[in-house]
Amino acid sequence: MRRVTLGDIEITHVSDGTYYLDGGAFFGVVPKVLWQRRLPPDDMNRISGGMNSLLLRAGKHTVLVETGMGNKLPDKMKQIYCPQEKLLESLAAAGVRPEQIDTVINTHLHFDHCGWNTVRRHGQAEPTFPNARYYVQKGEWEHGIRQLERDRVSYISDNYDPLVSSGQMQLLEGDQEIVPGISVKVYPGHTRHMQAVMIRGGRQTMCYISDLIPTTAHLDLTWVMAFDLFPLETIESRKKFYAEAIPGKWLVAFTHDPATPWAYLQMEGNRISAQRV
Ligand SMILES: [Zn+2]
User: Fold this and answer.
1) Which residues surround ligand 1, an ion (CB under 5 A)?
2) pTM of the predicted structure, to 2 decimals
């Protein structure tokens, strides 16, 4: 179990396990002859993606960033994605019970990022983390409930609507501090309102950049996923991100990297590479 400390904040890598993604969709317009050298696909052209979450212990707060795919997917989707449903085990291994989590941050509401927000009990979706306040951007939720043809498959109401109705999920409007040392910052592109999570302590910064840069194989500016709704904005957001993250020596957490939950970034010539820690 990987752990790092920034000042007073302890960060532990927890995971919902891996799932399958189509390699072509994962790398968009990038030719397969190029991406397959970085992440080799299986004979069905699938890549095994990670679902990395962060457990943060910050003062009196216990914070969970992202909740993976969960255990409520319909059977057909389970066959496609083969989720391992490991997040609660992973939290237990880190010494945390669901009731101890007081804050949950979702970067956006795609089903592979907020699945464990709720579990089904007696046919009802109920909060997995009963004592937590959940946070997401209001614009992200408004987009999800529109159920547009392009991406409605990614937005599953039971992952968030019961929490919004009960007031347990807070809808944010823009960048904001959530608890001392932990804030969110909107980076449009993957969706218009996807938020990264910034963790600051001991004069260091860590950023959970989520699907703006899903793995260390996606660091090139133009290696943008086909899922992204606004690919030109992804590139602009990445430029802004790199302009701060590289000189600022940010530790960067990668949501879907199966091997590298976090790394430092460095410029080598005009290529950005990950320096694993
Ligand atoms: Zn996503």
Assistant:
1) 110, 211
2) 0.98
